């Protein structure tokens, strides 16, 4: 058990080895499943549990610290990386009540086959006394599931927000020691998990304004002793603001599209626009997702394969569409040999992105002088749009 404040301990597990989350999200730095134990004068509460893979560690931590009684298990979120050990904790502490809001309770009954009788159902604004300490519950939905709520420990001014403000980072540090080092993992986590819900996140941030928060203890990654740092970062990421920045993900089989990308990226740079080129054959999802938090414009580049887009470009389009970025402008560039529906297919695949489409540039085989001139025109059009949006 690692102490975070008087009678408050971190009892979860560090997962140094995990490299993939949800069979999709790369974890270059591993992760942690944070569970917290609060020993009140009268009642003891466990805040969230850990991924089922690490149940043994949580149980060992509790048993070896001599925890003989748990009165409440606060389950903020149905997802198994936090709820997945509840059944095992209940075996050890059968009198414990699982504290959840109505939505989360229903979800836990479905996902974990828990029984209604296991629960103490709370709603927003409810408080629960531990004797000398008081838990207050705040609904913070869509971070990143609909049922998620947070707990504010009134006397200690600690917020336990579950995934909200989290980061996938395996570290022996309980607290954030270096803010610039946590910024990347926290932004990556926001981009991959939270960014589609930025409107709801803005609502949640607004709701938290009335709480005097001195510490944020999320369910992944280290604890923030300076909450302002991560709250300010979230406010920026979740805003609709974009930067003078173009994301240029591409794939090319025989270099036609690559030549276009090389020329076009230089053309944008010459005009004062920041560009990131992503080769889709080896780019990892986290980098794409992080770019989408800032990019004013996405230009997706693909050759034609079997009438449509190259599957790697299709995968990128599918992801962009799912993440619903705040990107304001979009275009497509690429190449074909004899007949193509690549542009229609890719724009159709990104229909959830509410961005203005700027005239695509498609070449037959290698780009010609005429095609390069069209790429310059596309760069000019992007600059004009960025200027109109006061980004440069
Ligand atoms: C497997 C394969 C399938 C292709 N299918 C089509 C097609 O359906 N329609 C088309 O116009 N060109 C098709 N092409 C031709 C390419 O789109 C064309 O050569 C293009 O210039 C390649 O761009 P790249 O050099 O960036 O890879 C195909 C090429 C390959 C290798």
TrEMBL record:
UniProt GO molecular function: electron transfer activity; FMN binding; metal ion binding; oxidoreductase activity
Keyword Oxidoreductase attached: yes
Gene3D superfamilies with a match to the protein in the record: 3.40.50.360, Ribonuclease Z/Hydroxyacylglutathione hydrolase-like
Protein name in the entry: Nitric oxide reductase
EC number: 1.-.-.-
Native source organism of the sequence: Anaerohalosphaera lusitana
Broad class of enzyme this protein falls into: oxidoreductase
Gene name of the record: fprA
Pfam families from the UniProt entry: ODP
Membership in a protein family: In the N-terminal section; belongs to the zinc metallo-hydrolase group 3 family.
